[in-house]
Design brief:
It comes from Melanomma pulvis-pyrius CBS 109.77. GO terms for molecular function: phosphatase activity. Keywords: Membrane, Signal, Transmembrane, Transmembrane helix. The two termini are 39 Å apart. This protein is an alpha/beta fold. Among the domains are: 266 residues, Phosphoglycerate mutase-like (Rossmann fold); 39 residues, no CATH class. The longest helix is centred in the C-terminal third of the chain and has 27 residues. It has 13 helices and ten strands. 40% of the residues are buried.
Length: 477
């Protein structure tokens, strides 16, 4: 992802005005540099660790100690009730979250505790702060998955994403880039078979080359990898993954963005509720996740209309932040909902004090912040906030979803999804279902002909005994 400076003037809005008070924030963050997906299991590298740690330091300077400090949040010693940190069950993402937290809340010093018997105990690692990272089932194994929907169990999302492989856009790119990918074979044939080096695998081919460019001192046939070629591998990977993560007329494939929207709404509502109750809790939500969730959320929130670079895969350690703030006088207590506003910020790659996140307008508008009511209503258009809603939307009826299965045609997922998209079969799934449908039609027609024409079934042995040739056919699903 390569953001231009067309909207750089908006970054001025990221600085806080004198009368402004930040009441809470929610960050969604990508992991740091890692090993390639094609050589699973993937692992966070030392560079990746440094990237997320540095990002944690930046957000510490923004939300804990700086002029945008979240009102009432503990600056040095973490208060766990003020913080919620989540990540999928994934080695790279969990470790990235922990590295980020080390930068956000560093050790509090050489804490020494005196015991009753006169002994003194010094805190390990100079007071390293133990902050739990809660796990999410959603997105489990994201960084070991070559295909972004492998990390979801949402049936309808997989079908929706798979429909990209039958689209005109995909077919045109698959055919027009054959020679381009053929030229890359000598570079990657130590990992991929020649037949797999096509636009169909645009992202994992790019991912392998990208990791090699960062870490390998020598790359096979490296003379092929000109700046133009590297740029094209990245651009094609962007188009491929955007097509799988978001489609304006079939938004079911954006289930991860819908879930993120639900989690943001739930947490920010708890921030407001706690504040109105006079409690010092639920101030800062942090979630780590894969680039697919970024893509899905970007599309659903129409951020590509603010800047087309949102259609590019975010770099390692990229982050987006949603800030809840007010310009109201707080001397009379917590502000009313009418006085609350939200703004969206994004930074491609590791944020720092010399390269800060930029404000972008949400929902296809032009305003750099929206009222809480408009924000809540905007996210509610696509947010999935409950297990029941997820089960119905995904068409799942087993496991956790068994409790919500209604049977028959009552399940809304059996018709058109609520975001305007219907069921679209993948080449694999559609092939299996199509084979059975075709077989049913053939058998039905054959039965009708037999009943009307007086034909009857006989065994192969009987036919063979009469000297008739035997023909056997099979359907490969």
């Amino acid at each position: 992802m390569h953001f231009t400076t067309a909207l750089s003037v908006l970054s001025m809005l990221a600085s806080v005005e004198a009368a402004e008070t930040v009441l809470g924030a929610y960050i969604f963050h990508r992991h740091g540099d890692r090993t390639p997906k094609s050589l699973a299991p993937t692992n966070l590298t030392t560079l990746g660790y440094e990237q997320v740690y540095a990002s944690g330091q930046y957000y510490r300077s923004r939300y804990l100690t700086g002029s945008s400090k979240i009102r009432g949040i503990n600056k040095d010693t973490v208060k766990l009730s003020q913080l919620s940190v989540t990540a999928p069950v994934d080695n790279v993402l969990q470790n990235s979250a922990m590295g980020f937290l080390q930068g956000l809340y560093p050790p509090v010093g050489q804490t020494i505790q005196a015991l009753a018997n006169g002994n003194e105990v010094q805190a390990p690692m100079d007071g390293y702060q133990l902050i739990p990272v809660n796990t999410l089932a959603t997105g489990a194994g994201s960084e070991d998955a070559g295909w972004l929907q492998d990390a979801t169990t949402c049936y309808n999302a997989k079908i929706s994403s798979n429909s990209y492989f039958t689209s005109t856009e995909y077919t045109n790119l698959l055919n027009s880039t054959k020679d381009f990918y053929a030229a890359l074979v000598p570079v990657v044939n130590g990992t991929f078979n020649e037949k797999d080096v096509t636009y169909k695998n645009a992202y994992i081919v790019y991912d392998l080359i990208n990791v090699a460019e960062i870490h390998n001192t020598s790359i096979p046939s490296s003379d092929v990898l000109t700046n133009s070629t590297l740029f094209q591998t990245r651009t094609l990977a962007d188009a491929h993954e955007w097509g799988l993560a978001y489609n304006e007329t079939d938004q079911m494939r954006s289930i991860s963005g819908m879930q993120l929207a639900g989690e943001i709404l739930k947490y920010m509502n708890s921030t407001i509720t706690s504040g109105k109750a006079g409690l010092s809790s639920n101030k800062f939500g942090i979630q780590f996740g894969a680039y697919a969730t970024f893509f899905s959320f970007f599309g659903l929130a129409s951020l590509q209309k603010a800047n087309p670079d949102f259609m590019g895969v975010p770099d390692y350690a990229s982050s987006m932040a949603l800030e809840l703030f007010t310009n109201a006088d707080l001397s009379g207590g917590y502000p009313s909902n009418d006085d609350l506003q939200v703004r969206f910020l994004f930074h491609n790659g590791t944020a720092s004090n010399s390269s800060e996140p930029v404000v972008y307008p949400l929902f296809g508008g032009s305003a750099n912040s929206v009222s809480w009511t408009d924000f809540s209503n905007g996210l509610s258009q696509f947010a999935v906030s409950t297990t029941e809603a997820w089960c119905h939307k995904c068409g799942n009826s087993t496991g956790t979803c068994a409790a919500y299965a209604t049977g028959g045609n009552d399940n809304p997922s059996t018709t058109q999804n609520s975001n305007g998209g219907g069921h679209h079969m993948s080449a694999a799934i559609g092939g299996v279902i199509g084979a059975f449908v075709t077989l049913a039609v053939v058998l039905g027609s054959l039965l009708a002909i037999m009943l009307l024409g007086g034909f009857r079934l006989v065994s192969k042995k009987t036919l063979a005994g009469r000297g008739s040739p035997v023909s056997e056919t099979g359907v490969k699903a």
